[in-house]
Amino acid sequence: MDSQGREVSYYSELKGDMVFLFLKDVLDGYSVYTLKLNYTLNKETQIRSKTWSFTTGKGRTIQWLFAQYDEFMLHPGSKLPIKLVASYDDGTSGTPNSPIAYSSSSPAGLKVSADGMLEGRKPGSYKLTFISGKCVTRCQ
């Protein structure tokens, strides 16, 4: 589980009496993670539990944010969730885990919520800005 209470996906593999855990995605940098493992020993029915936390190091950094659309058209009253892909400094890309700030060049014409939901209000041409750390991306 990450510091915001979100589950972290993983695979597990049992080899003899050892359990190996493999993460499905790269962990965020400078973040605290807590692992809780419930298990039973061979030939026992009692459930045992171990919990520990760790903090990651620097991690990867977002270099670019890309919107799923280069341009889009919304009619007044219609909504569209904006989906972003992050390109990282380690050559990987994927859905960003770090917080994204969204803004519109004119909220009176195009509203954007904190979670990236766009809402058309008035006809016009508007620009969106996405910010994560030092990465700033704009699209129209």
From TrEMBL:
Superkingdom field: Bacteria
Protein name: BIG2 domain-containing protein
Organism listed in the record: Paenibacillus cucumis
